[in-house]
Amino acid sequence: MKQLMTRGLNYVSMIFKGVVAARLWLVAYIVLILIPASVLLYAYSQRYSRILEEEVTRTMLQTLKQAEINLNHQLDSARDISNTILMNPKLHQYLSNSTSDSDQLDAMKELRILVDNAQTNPIVFRVRLYVDDSKLFSHERVNFFPWESIKNRPWYTDVVNSRGNLVWTGAYLENFLDDTQSARYIFSGIRVLRDPDDYDHMSGVLSIEVSAKTIENILSNIELNKEQNVFMVAPDGTVVLHNDKSLLGTKLKSSSVLSAIEQKNEGVSPIIEDNTQQYVVYTTIGSTGWKLVAEVPKNGISSRAASLNQFASVATLSGITILFLILVFLLLAFIMRGMNRRVQTVIRVIKREGMEGLDERSGASEGDFYLLEKSVDHLIHRVRDLMEETYKSKVQEREAQLRALQAQINPHFLYNTLDTINWIAIGHNAHDISQMIDGLAKYFRLSLNKGRDLVSVTDELNLAKVYLEIQQNRFPKSFKVHFDIEEGMDDIEMPKLTLQPIVENALLHGIRKSKGKTGSILIKARQEEGLLILSVTDDGIGMEPELVQSLLTEPRPNMKSDVSGSSYGLYNVNERIKLFAGDAYGLELHSTLGEGTIVTVRMTYKHSSDKPPL
Fold this sequence. Notes:
This protein has helices at about 1-20, 25-85, 90-95, 100-120, 155-160, 210-220, 255-260, 300-365, 370-405, 410-425, 430-450, 455-475, 500-510, 545-550, 570-580, and strands at about 125-130, 145, 165-170, 170-175, 185-195, 200-210, 230-235, 240, 265-275, 275-285, 290-295, 455, 480-485, 490-495, 520-530, 530-540, 585-590, 595-605, 605. By secondary structure, the protein is α+β, with helices and mostly antiparallel strands. α3 crosses α4 (about 100-120), α10 packs antiparallel against α11 (about 430-450) and α11 runs antiparallel to α12. This is histidine kinase.
């Protein structure tokens, strides 16, 4: 402890000496560079803030214009759909007064396809046709409505007077019988339909409806300021879209904003609203004539400009500092040339004579460089010690993890107890109990494996076979087992208790949870390109894709079987294989819900004749 305190004091002393040695350079830097640069930067920042404020507002206008282009594109797309429907000859056939009911029905079929196709467009929420009551399906109230139902709407007069041109309404609340939300805010592009036989006679109204949410999503992407207020108004000052739905259809109350946006099609105007300085950024949507308006408090713009100005000031000051450091570097370069020669001398001593030579040389040295040599000496020894400690800890950790994952309850005690129970069962002529106890004893004998962590593939397969025989007694005639084993497995060793947890999972979580609680299990073992490949296939209930992905990445200690549970689980087995063979190996799961699961084991293996590594 005392040695550590002494070493810490030495480090502090080194730092203090370095600061004292550089005090003249620090004073010169503050007087000659830092103070004059600060005065110049203050004057420069004031002018730069005004320029930045203008640039920020100009950027805001460009952002708003980009949103206006997007809105124009969406509304023009809806207009094109309206034109397509308008020019369709089947619509004219349906609207004609001289068309018979059968011809109307024939036209109606194609109109239905046309309307459905139009509604697949992302911008179109609903297509509506308002027609005379005498027309077929005029009371369908999904896409076809009676004409009389819209004559009391506030926009109806404008549509009639538009001479067939498309008229856009502001956002309004509309009910939809077939929509789960029942009512939602929409925009409508509406035009009058003329009778093909008598063009002066109105035969109906076509409405292309756009969800207000679609337009609001475009406006939500506008990022001008945290306190911004973005909305749309008609040329007469009527609010077309606003976050406050109670303002829809009303005149804009702010005369300052109205007078600002009436001046021209786009621009940035400063105003004072409620004793607060603001900027009104606005542009015109060409397809409708509406104004897209954003109210932004001036303090938000000023703070943004100030932050940019602060960045520029810091960048300038940093540049000056770098120039000063370059001058210092040139001076230090001459000093370091002399020091470099001594460092090279130390390196040559280390290479030629080792650490002992460095210790002998350090004893005869004096001054600051003596401290450097001692520090290098200490660093080398410390790195060497840390490398040895790290290697030992990693080896111990790996062995501890492998043995901890394979730890079980005391199998010796259980095996001896089962053997006693077996003889008692034989003495009482309970041969079925004796047979099952004998199978369980075999299971523990194979899993014990005389204390060894590795078993042959054949023994591992026998362990799985004994486990399934026990389960056959437990669940008679509920499953079948098939083995497909390649020859030459006796000489191959693998970690014990690898296959049995997978087989248990296939039986208890796959087959026993299926509807009929019956099925089959296929176990395969083969060698492939120097790897051991084991697979367990069941035709049980299968798993959801989300569960398949999580089984190998998350421990599931609470996952229990229908009766006894499993002390391992697929996650545990996968981690053991990685510890044994490396991270490139492990389990692979393929499962289809209702069809079954395939679990494949891929790992390197050892031959029983190989010598264990030192």
